[in-house]
Design brief:
alpha/beta, 2 domains, four-stranded mixed sheet
Amino acid sequence: MAAAGTPASLLITLPHTLAANHSDFVDLAPTAAAAGTPCLRAADVNADDIIAEVAGIAPDIIFVVGWSRLVKAPLQALARTGVIGYHPTLLPLMRGRAALAWTILLDVSTTGGTLFWIDDGVDSGDIAAQREFALSGREYLGDLMTMQMDALRSMLEELVPRLAEGERPARAQHHELATYLAHRRPEDGLILWDQPAETIWRQVRAVSRPYPGAFTRVDDGVMKIWRARVADHPEWHAQTGQIFMTVDDCPVVRCGDGRDLVIEELEMVRAKKPIGQKRLGRP
């Protein structure tokens, strides 16, 4: 917004005490300070004191980006023109939670970001702007985040001047085409080695840094897998979930479809790096 010549009047972000609960948290306070925008830290944007603070600046538009909690009606009502949210998919497709992870898990080839006018539904408001971009099918979560931020920046640079001129671009969503995403939790990163290698590889990429990571059990501990690739070693007969060889010091694990996952970066948690032909996924 600052790059578009219209810096925000106020930034509301999480207090540091709660930031650790969000693996993708980025502290925007220094960026806001550089743009001359005051920063207010709040655990609940719907609290009375926050509403009073926002009312004092009489906003034309409120932007909700990267905020996982609902912005309720009293706060929405303070924005003269409306409230714009950001969703990292091409709405009406993939409404709901954990959209970045689901984009990789579902092997989506074309995605994008959407700025939309928040209404009473779930990501269902009229579209103010939308950007589409292609995926290679090899992106890790961090790569997708960067692509989404590039799309958001591009949209804001075009949209903010139009809003400043009094325009209110709005295109209704085709609700009959809507699809929805279920909530995901850190424990969903548990690898099931009887799945195909490509499925496991997508799982690794979908919850890689800054998310908690895909993991498998090793003895009484855990191995987190941050980077991997799919390979084929048909000359080897191995059990599902078994490390049966190493390539350049990278463990190779047999998956459920007979293909293999080469673990390029791992982290051991309460466990030693397995040696020999260890079978993973068992306590």
